[in-house]
Amino acid sequence: MGEVGRGDVGAGGAGAAGESVRDMLAANLRRARTGLGLSLSELSRRSKIGKATLSQLEAGTGNPTIETVFSLSRALEIPISDLLDQSRPAGLTVVRAAGVEVLRGAGVDLRPLRGIETGDAIFEVYDQRVRAGATQDSLGHVGMEHTIVQVGRLRVRVDGREVELGPGDYVGFDARLPHRYTAPDGPVHSVLLLQYRTDQRLHADPARPGCLEPAR
Questions:
Q1: pTM of the model
Q2: DSSP letter string over 150-174?
Q3: Environment class of residue 63 by beta-carbon count within 10 Å: exposed (0-12), middle (13-18) or buried (19+)?
């Protein structure tokens, strides 16, 4: 969800391997940008994020938001996991909500829980909280978006069409379309799944079997 906007990384626990969201984004953003042969000026033009802000993010001194991360995903046409690199442990995996760093946006708090790669698909699993009375807008980004409401009522607008969901309800759509999440009656707790093709991954990672270089 989201475009450049308010909010910053929460004070929760560190990300994979003890790295913060800020640290992971700094390294991965620089690698993604240079891997695609983009200058800071060109990425700024594509993402509508200021060049100075991008420079701070790459230096690890900026405060990434949901809006910023999704804008970068859209501009670079890569999965969020290429920017917020999460480990993929095998066997039993337990992620405690209290130990996951929160990525905040204008109306939503996201906690990245797990990335799952199977066949030609990548799924990113997030704990998603929409604040009471708040709205989160997005101009669109890479992939398919799936949301399952657990608590509360969620209003979802996709490319001009609006639906309202209650506990247990599901919505899925092409995330490239403009979309909006609103919690009209109170806070909403939901599960967000972002789905990509493996050929959308920017770079191969030997720690992730089956990862591919981008299609030529």
A1: 0.69
A2: EES-EEEEETTEEEEE-TT-EEEEE
A3: middle
